[in-house]
Design a protein that fits this description.
Layout (H helix, E strand, L loop, with lengths): L1 H34 L3 E5 L5 E4 L1 H7 L3 H4 L4 H5 L5 H12 L4 E8 L5 E12 L5 E9 L1 H23 L3 E6 L4 E4 L1 H7 L3 H7 L11 H12 L4 E8 L5 E12 L5 E9 L1 H23 L3 E5 L7 E4 L2 H6 L3 H5 L11 H17 L3 E8 L5 E12 L5 E10 L1 H23 L3 E6 L4 E4 L1 H6 L19 H17 L3 E10 L2 E13 L5 E10 L1 H33 L2 H15 L7 H32 L8 E4 H11 L1 H6 L3 E5 L5 E4 L1 H17 L6 E10 L2 E8 L6 H5 L20 H12 L3 E7 L3 E9 L6
Parallel strand pairs: 22-24
Antiparallel strand pairs: 1-2, 1-5, 3-4, 4-5, 6-7, 6-10, 8-9, 9-10, 11-12, 11-15, 13-14, 14-15, 16-17, 16-20, 18-19, 19-20, 21-23, 24-25, 25-27, 26-27
Helix pairs in contact: 18-19, 19-24, 20-22, 22-24
Length: 770
């Protein structure tokens, strides 16, 4: 009994001791559970949170009671990683231990990078638990990302710097290079890295230089060196090498080098050196002096070029050592004016330009031209004056002579009556004289500059002139004395134009010079001469006609006179009264013909000499016709010609009485001559219009063919005999035509062979209204 009790007590005590040990173990585990710096979670098989430590709560921002009993995937797994969370659960439930870096979400929605370690635990009861440890690796991830960024940045910088970069080991073997290096030397990256020999780019004669540079860099020097290297195609490249030693953690030394292509810079430097040499040569050989002086009125010189001697006769040292100032050689009347001008230039910051006179070292007075400027510091204070001075004495004298010649030429141009003009290659006026300006209708020659013939003349003339000028400037063939009839501002005028091309110093045609002479008066005189020649020819023809008349027509009546007088003088002949009467009638007819011919000759002669006076007035035609018919009454009777008249007793005509009487007599004489015995002559006067009077004289004579009518009033026509051999000189009709023309009338002829002829004279019925 006692034994049983003792056993029970021992057992109980052992159990208590075990229980205490378990409690202590649990407390230790709980202490350890809470003290670990990691988030710890215990999950059941369904991912339900059974327990967590404070570090887990702090990590995700929850209280314990907010998490216990909740699905872990619902609480801390982001939506985008739900599947990932389930995969982890499945893996653990299969008894796998898991380790994974991933992201989880806090209660505030922010993300946290964690390293998860998951381990399945099987309880004595057979239940499965998941023991998970969450370690915050955000800093580690950030550092890793930073390192990656740094690496990417370095790689980007390495590849994108505008320099060739190369990494060498301590044996000068090539370890790496960027694309710029590859491009600079023409080798592929593979060729360079496979070879590893930097000597590929070092010219043979510079091999020792490469070793020296390596030694300096590995000795700790930062090296900058300008030299040459060669490309794969053996082309030489000017480079600037910057090299530095790099020591790795393992103590191994590397050479980090930059190569900059300075070929262009070398070219620029060479060009600058050449430019400086050229500028020095230019300054040295300039005809004038280049200077720099103080910005004071005395102009003390700091620098003067060798041209100083040519301009002033003094050496540059005479000024730069201040033996004399430049102001001392300026003529006194210019000193104040020039300084005031410099003051304005300094104030305005513009360019100084001036011409003035100086006294040279030999005492001569010289004209100089100066161009300069003030130089300012950053505070806009003037530091000094600099510029260029040139001796222009010869140029000034030439210019003065040119001005005189120009003035003389202008005076000559403006006082020559001919029009003078100059045009450019496009036929635009560039200069004209006063006569040309007046012909163009301008007040001043300057108004013509820039304009063309199209601005002043009709298009037809302007176009012809333009084409002629362009052709002349293309061929170089001058236009000489071309006569043109042009409508100018002074009216229609005749001009004789001469145009010649203008050449520049290279012989190129750059325009033209033209002279046009107004020949209107000459042309008028020529026309008058031509008219006079025509008139003289006509007079000569008429004179010849007169001589023919005298030689022929006067011969017949005089021969009749001689024959009749010879008959009368013959003592052996005796005549009865009838014979005497016939002879007397023959003498009378001969005398009448001679009288008529002489009257016409005298009238014609008076007309040719302009000695005929006439007076136009109103004349009663009835009286004039009747009086002239009476003169031919005997001829009418002798040839048994019937006369019919139809003349209004009060009808008048505006004419000269003597002219009109001669016209009527000549027409009646012709009618009698060419009308056969027993024929008829009609005289009719009518008014074809209110202001005209028509006098028609018709006969029933032999008529005329058309070709004779066309030449009827010409001196070339030869008179023909009448129906009874009456003489006719043809001069009468010429007089008729001229008399009618002077009275402002006209004459018309209608005729038909063997039927007769009608002459119709049209004259004014009254004086024309003025």
């Amino acid at each position: 009994m006692m034994s049983k009790q003792s056993l029970t007590l021992d057992t109980f005590q052992s159990l208590n001791a075990l229980q205490d040990a378990l409690i202590n173990e649990k407390k230790y585990f709980q202490y350890l559970f809470e003290s670990l710096p990691f988030g710890i979670v215990v999950l059941d098989i369904n991912d339900v949170i059974l327990d967590i430590n404070d570090a887990f709560c702090d990590m995700f921002g929850y209280a314990k009671d907010e998490l216990i009993g909740r699905f872990v995937n619902d609480m801390i797994v982001p939506e985008t990683l739900k599947d990932d969370g389930l995969l982890l659960t499945d893996a653990v439930s299969r008894g796998e231990n898991i380790k994974k870096d991933t992201k989880r979400v806090r209660s505030d929605g922010s993300f946290i990078h964690v390293a998860i370690t998951g381990q399945p635990i099987t309880l004595p009861s057979g239940e499965l638990r998941v023991f998970g440890i969450y370690q915050d690796i955000s800093d580690r991830v950030a550092m890793k990302n930073a390192l990656e960024d740094e690496k990417l940045f370095f790689q980007s910088l390495y590849e994108n710097v505008p320099f060739a970069v190369v990494l060498l080991d301590d044996k000068e073997r090539l370890i790496d290079c960027n694309e710029v290096f590859v491009s600079m030397f023409g080798f592929s990256r593979h060729e360079l890295l496979q070879s590893g020999d930097i000597g590929l780019i070092i010219p043979e004669k510079f091999a020792g230089e490469g070793k020296s540079l390596r030694s300096s860099v590995l000795g700790g020097e930062n090296v900058y060196h300008e030299t040459v290297r060669k490309r794969k195609d053996e082309q030489i490249v000017n480079v600037a090498i910057t090299a530095k030693r790099v020591i790795r953690k393992n103590g191994k030394q590397l050479i980090f080098a930059f190569y900059e292509d300075i070929s262009q810079r070398k070219l620029v430097e060479a060009a600058l050196i050449e430019r400086e040499r050229e500028l020095s040569a230019i300054v040295k050989y300039l005809p004038g002096m280049v200077y720099r002086c103080e910005a004071e009125k005395e102009y003390r010189v700091y620098f003067a070029s060798e041209g100083t001697m040519r301009v002033t006769g003094y050496s540059p040292e005479d000024f730069t050592t201040h033996k004399l100032t430049f102001n001392e050689i300026i003529l006194p009347e210019y000193r104040d004016v020039l300084w005031q001008k410099w003051q304005q230039i300094i104030k305005g910051g513009t360019i100084f330009n001036a011409e003035y006179r100086i006294t040279a070292a030999d005492g001569s007075i010289r004209w100089v031209w100066e161009r300069g400027r003030p130089v300012f510091d950053e505070s806009n204070h003037v530091l000094f004056l600099e510029g260029y001075i040139e001796d222009i004495t010869e140029r000034f004298n030439i210019q003065h002579d040119l001005w005189q010649e120009r003035d003389l030429l202008q005076s000559l141009m403006d006082n020559i009556p001919d029009t003078i003009y100059f045009k450019d290659r496009q036929s635009c006026f560039i200069r004209v004289n006063l006569a040309q300006a007046g012909m163009l209708g301008l007040h001043s020659p300057a108004e013509a500059v820039g304009k063309t013939d199209f601005d002043f003349f009709n298009e037809e003339h302007a176009k012809i002139a333009f084409e002629d000028e362009q052709k002349m400037m293309e061929t170089g063939a001058a236009v000489i004395n071309k006569q043109e009839y042009i409508n100018t501002a002074l009216g229609w005028r005749w001009f004789s134009a001469t145009k010649v091309p203008l050449h520049n110093s290279e012989g190129e045609i750059i325009g033209l010079a033209g002279v046009s002479r107004d020949i209107t008066e000459i042309k008028t005189m020529e026309e008058k001469v031509l008219e006079s020649e025509d008139h003289l020819r006509k007079i000569n023809a008429e004179k010849d006609k007169l001589f023919s008349v005298i030689a022929h027509d006067l011969r017949s009546p005089f021969n009749s006179f001689l024959l009749l007088t010879e008959i009368f003088a013959d003592e052996y002949l005796s005549f009865d009264q009838d014979e005497m009467q016939n002879l007397a009638n023959s003498l009378h007819r001969a005398a009448t013909n001679v009288s008529e011919l002489l009257e016409n000759l005298l009238s014609w002669s008076a007309l040719q000499r302009g000695m005929v006076n006439y007076e136009l007035r109103l004349i009663n035609l009835n009286e004039l016709v009747k009086k002239n018919l009476d003169l031919y009454n005997n001829q009418f009777i002798n040839k048994e010609i019937a006369i019919e008249t139809d003349v209004n007793q009060v009808i008048s005509v505006y004419a000269d009485y003597n002219f009109l009487s001669s016209v009527v007599r000549n027409l009646l004489s012709n009618a009698v001559k060419f009308t056969p015995r027993g024929g008829k002559i009609e005289v009719r006067v009518t008014n074809p219009s209110q202001d005209k009077v028509a006098i028609a004289i018709s006969d029933s004579g032999i008529g005329m063919p058309e070709d004779l009518i066309q030449k009827l009033f010409s001196v070339d026509i030869t008179g023909r005999k009448g129906t009874e051999s009456e003489p006719s000189s043809g001069l009468g009709l010429i007089l008729v035509k001229e008399f009618i023309d002077k009275m402002g009338g006209s004459i018309h002829v209608e005729s038909e062979v063997d039927k007769g002829t009608t002459f119709t004279v049209i004259l004014p019925a009254s004086k024309a209204k003025e």
